[in-house]
Design brief:
Elements: H1 3-13, H2 16-20, H3 24-32, H4 35-46, H5 52-60, H6 64-73, H7 81-92, H8 97-112, H9 120-125, H10 130-143, E1 155-163, E2 170-178, E3 181-184, H11 195-200, E4 205-211, H12 212-228, E5 232-238, H13 247-260, E6 268-272, H14 274-286, E7 293-297, H15 300-306, E8 311-316, E9 319-326, E10 331-334, H16 344-360, H17 363-372, H18 375-378, H19 391-412, H20 431-438, H21 442-459, H22 465-477, H23 490-503, E11 510-514, E12 516-523, H24 528-542, H25 564-570
Parallel strand pairs: 3-10, 4-5, 4-6, 6-7, 7-10
Antiparallel strand pairs: 1-2, 8-9, 11-12
Bound molecules: nicotinamide-adenine-dinucleotide (NAD) and zinc ion.
């Protein structure tokens, strides 16, 4: 049965208006006895809710939002009644907004009544269909335990094992499936915006880890939002500068999660930029080995890249992102209204990650960036001094959406980095080795890497000279760096190359534009001599640009941050 037919059937079978006329407890009792409820749960239990064909069905009817809810309904019996009704309401949006609103009213009432807000399993066990539900449960314990006893509704794992006759040789295969929902949505903290509420209301609490600069600007908004929706907020502020990407800070977050008793099926909320996304996401990966989290992205980099990324991490031994775990958020929200309070230097450095995707994945991004030019920085992506709906506003939204799409397309096909054909690592091959030592902001280090890698591509005849120059032009158009003198230290570069080759499983696999800008190829072999000489050749192009290729405020210290080169050297 298609999702739409299932929703239609459910709507016809159960009159929600009638239920709303009853006291909450009676309404839930009444619902528990409906055969349509059993049919709905039974039908979804049988499905592979992570199947691509199923996802396409939601895409075809333009209801991707309901897919997130549909997937969670697979664990219906283990959800609290409030959460079940909440997800049900989201799912029913495939047929009717009005129907969805009514079910969410019932969800709200249930959530407020502790006595009624029990696990669905317990509720149906007290109803007239208890035997049917009991046998469904029994059946699924062996058939698919995710239906009955899931650890959380956000992921599943499967596998199989074979062995020889005397069990001395055993071979196992393990697969794991997670899903992430990405929303580009402005004003997430506006009281009327239901997104965060729909995640946290069923738990009646939210553990929020908040970047200290975000706290300065948005504390009242964040606290006001949760207070209004009657959700208890555990609000914890963390300084998250580049120098704070230390394993000690991951540990500090772990201690907080322990103290607050975070549970494995309750998403924590991370509100901040790329640094907090990395370290708090890493803590979530470590806590209980896997705790779900929601990213509310407040910077350009987290909004289009680090936020939905599964690569959580901290720095280690003076090297960027040395420790880490693959752990994607269950939900990532890109809300550009946060950008209005970002320092210009942060906006500029965020644009590097967009140029990255334009350079090797989607040329349209470069076209759009050239079209809007430095206005992108001056207006903080159309959030200040810009009329709503103006050309700048619309183009900025397009840039964000397209950057996000191309990033996610590249990343999610290779979630665990099981191979190294990763276009989105453009500019990130040598730069991790010199970013900390140079004291540069991440985006400047990456754009230096992109410029140099563009040169390597041109040198190999993979792109035309005018394309290489176009790349340098776009980077410098936004005041980003194409040069830093650290490039003259061949030892640092060579050591970065060796470390990266090690990290990438024995292959350098440096992504660069190939064929044309917007398409990707990989450089795997480059000798010490070639590296050294290429840098000298590349420098000749850089010196023709303003400030000899050095960008505007390229260093962390230029934008008021501690210098990571000092901390990096010390750790
Ligand atoms: N995991 C990944 O896949 C991935 C991808 C890209 C980048 N990264 C990492 O992300 C980091 C860079 O991210 P970033 O640019 O978001 O840096 P960031 O988190 O340091 O944020 C930039 C600065 O802006 C402040 N800030 C954030 N939002 C704000 C707001 N709305 N208003 C005012 N101030 C605000 C922060 O406190 C910080 O000082 C790097 O460490 C990089 O390695 C990770
Ligand atoms: Zn990056």
């Amino acid at each position: 049965m298609s999702p739409t037919s299932l929703a239609q059937f459910f709507k016809c079978a159960i009159n929600i208006s009638d239920l709303l006329n009853l006291p909450t407890e009676t309404a839930v009792k009444e619902l528990s006895g409906k055969t349509a409820l059993y049919c709905l749960i039974d039908t979804i239990s049988q499905l592979n809710v992570y199947d691509e064909a199923l996802a396409s069905e939601f895409e075809k009817i333009n209801s991707v939002r309901s897919l997130y809810a549909y997937r969670q309904l697979k664990s219906a019996l283990s959800l609290s009644c409030g959460k079940f009704l909440n997800e049900l309401s989201q799912f029913l949006k495939v047929i009717s907004e009005e129907e969805a609103v009514q079910w969410s009213l019932l969800a709200d009432r249930v959530i407020l009544e502790n006595k009624v807000n029990k696990q669905m399993r317990l509720i149906v066990a007290e109803g007239p269909l208890s035997d049917k539900f009991k046998s469904l449960e029994e059946n699924y314990i062996s058939k698919d335990a995710h239906v009955v006893y899931p650890t959380s509704p956000y992921r599943i794992s499967q596998g199989h094992v074979v062995s020889n006759e005397d069990y001395t040789d055993i071979d196992g295969v393990i697969t794991s499936t997670v899903s992430t929902s990405i929303r580009v949505q402005n004003n997430a903290l506006c009281i009327a915006n239901p997104l965060l509420r729909s995640v946290y209301a069923p738990y009646r609490r939210c553990i929020a880890l908040v970047d200290s600069n975000v706290d300065l600007h948005y504390k009242e908004d964040i606290q006001g939002y949760f207070e209004h929706h009657n959700i208890k907020l555990h609000y914890r502020v963390h300084r998250a500068m580049e120098v704070d990407k230390h394993i000690n800070n991951v540990e500090k977050i772990l201690a907080e999660l322990k103290l607050l008793g975070a549970s494995r099926d309750e998403p924590i909320l991370i509100i901040g930029g790329g640094v907090l996304a990395d370290i708090a996401g890493f803590a979530a990966a470590l806590y209980h080995r896997n705790t779900p989290y929601v990213m509310l992205n407040t910077s350009v980099v987290s909004g289009i890249d680090a936020g939905p990324s599964p690569r959580t991490c901290s720095d280690g031994y003076g090297y960027k992102n040395l420790f880490g775990a693959y752990h994607a958020p269950i939900l990532s929200i890109t809300d550009k209204t946060f950008f209005k309070t970002l320092h210009k230097g942060w906006i500029r450095h965020g644009i590097a990650e967009i140029i990255k995707m334009g350079g090797v994945k989607d040329i349209k991004l470069l076209d759009l960036l050239e079209e809007v030019g430095p206005t992108l920085v001056d207006t903080a992506f159309g959030t200040v001094n810009t009329d709503k709906g103006s050309d700048v506003d619309v183009t900025c939204d397009k840039i964000l959406g397209l950057a996000l799409k191309s990033y996610v397309e590249s990343e999610y096909d290779n979630l665990y980095e099981t191979h190294q054909c990763r276009p989105h690592a453009f500019g990130h091959t040598w730069s991790p080795g010199f970013e900390i030592a140079s004291g540069m902001l991440h985006g400047h280090a990456v754009s230096v890497g992109m410029g140099f890698n563009g040169y390597l591509s041109y040198q190999r005849g993979w792109i035309e000279k005018h394309e290489f120059l176009r790349l340098l032009d776009v980077i410098t158009l936004f005041g980003l760096s194409i040069w830093h003198d650290i490039l003259l230290d061949t030892e640092i570069l060579w050591s970065a190359q060796l470390k990266m080759t090690e990290k990438r499983g024995g292959n350098l696999a440096a992504p660069v534009p190939k064929g044309a800008l917007g398409s990707c190829g990989y450089i795997n072999d480059i000798s010490y001599e070639e590296l050294k000489n290429s840098i000298l050749d590349y420098k000749q192009f850089c010196i023709l640009y303003p400030r000899k290729g050095v960008g505007i405020e390229p260093l962390c210290s230029d934008v008021g941050l501690e210098d990571p080169s000092v901390i990096g050297a010390a750790s």
